[in-house]
Design goal:
This protein is mostly beta strands. It has one helix at residues 125-129; strands at residues 13-14, 18-22, 30-37, 41-47, 57-66, 73-88, 93-100. The protein has one domain (13-112): Beta Barrel (Thrombin, subunit H), CATH 2.40.10. The protein contains 1 helix and 7 strands, in the order βββββββα.
């Protein structure tokens, strides 16, 4: 996809993690797998026959990585989302794109992992393992 045709206003991170969605807060949840995520939207894959229809609002639950200086952390989303698109995907699946009703908190920062020129390079594996 070229930059001119990209409709995204925010950077996204790609990762594969379980996601659950349903239509009733006390009802059955169906499972999907996150494909990519931004502060205001998520795309996921789910079985063709379980995909929610565009325009519907579904209760959505998933975890996502947070940027922390020295440790790995996860955030959690449990709120409603609006289904924007539902496209065919491989192997009997559909790719569902949704807008989150409640954006992820400001500490969520999908970053480009390209090292900065001012940033010191990571030590070689031999340096990490030497005693």
């Amino acid at each position: 996809m070229s930059a001119a045709s990209d409709r995204r206003r925010e950077r996204r991170i790609r990762f594969s993690w379980p996601l659950w969605f349903g239509y009733d807060p006390n009802g059955q949840l169906l499972q999907g797998k996150v494909a990519d995520l931004s502060r205001s939207g998520v795309a996921f894959l789910t079985a063709h026959d379980q995909a929610p229809a565009p325009g519907s609002h579904v209760l959505t639950r998933f975890s996502y990585p947070l940027e922390r200086d020295t440790r790995f952390a996860m955030g959690s989303y449990l709120h409603w989302a609006e289904v924007l698109r539902c496209d065919e995907a491989a192997y009997g699946q559909r790719r569902v794109a949704m807008r989150l009703h409640q954006p992820l908190p400001g500490e969520f920062a999908p970053v480009d992992r390209t090292p900065d020129k001012a940033e010191a390079p990571e030590p070689a594996a031999e340096q990490l393992c030497s005693v």
